[in-house]
Amino acid sequence: MFMGEYRHNVDEKGRMIVPAKFRDNLGSSFVVTRGLDRCLFVYPQEEWKKLENQLKTLPFTKKDARAFTRFFFSGATECEIDKQGRVNIASPLREYAQLDKECVVIGVSNRVEIWSKVIWEEYFAESEESFSEIAENIVDFDL
C-alpha cells in the first residue's frame, strides 16, 4: 500500500527521485500514465494489469468508454527506477501534469500520484473545505 506525501524536484532532463518508501512496492518496472485532475498515476505492474482488465470490459460502442480508454492508455508508458532512485518522466506526461520543477508525490492506496506543487496546493485548498461533506456522502466509516 502506498501512503504519504513527499516533495521532490523534476530536473531539466525530466527525472524525478522516487520516494524510497515507494520503490520496493513499485517493483523493477511500473506504469506511469495521465491521471485525473491534471496529475500522473503510477501503478505497479500487478495493479496496472487489474486496471487494464477492468477497462477492457468497457463497451467500445459507448463514446465515453472509448474516450476514457484512449486518454488513459495513450499516455501510458512503462518506466524503471535508475541506480540513483530516479524515474524519467516522458515529456508529454510532464506537459500534461505541468511538471516543470517542484512536484508532490503522494501515495493513494494502490497507486502513486505525481502532482505539480502548484496544482496540488490549489487542489488541496479547494478540496480541504469539503472533505467532511465528501466523506459523509460517499463513505460510512462507522467509527
Automatic annotation (TrEMBL):
It comes from the Bacteria. PROSITE patterns: SPOVT_ABRB. It holds the Pfam family MraZ. Keywords: Cytoplasm, DNA-binding, Repeat, Transcription, Transcription regulation. CDD domains: MraZ_C, MraZ_N. Residues 5-47, 76-119 form the SpoVT-AbrB domain. The keyword Cytoplasm applies. Its main location: cytoplasm. It is found in: Cytoplasm, Nucleoid. The keyword Methyltransferase does not apply. HAMAP family: MraZ. NCBIfam families: division/cell wall cluster transcriptional repressor MraZ (TIGR00242). Forms oligomers. Belongs to the MraZ family. This is Transcriptional regulator MraZ. It comes from Halalkalibacter kiskunsagensis. The gene is mraZ.
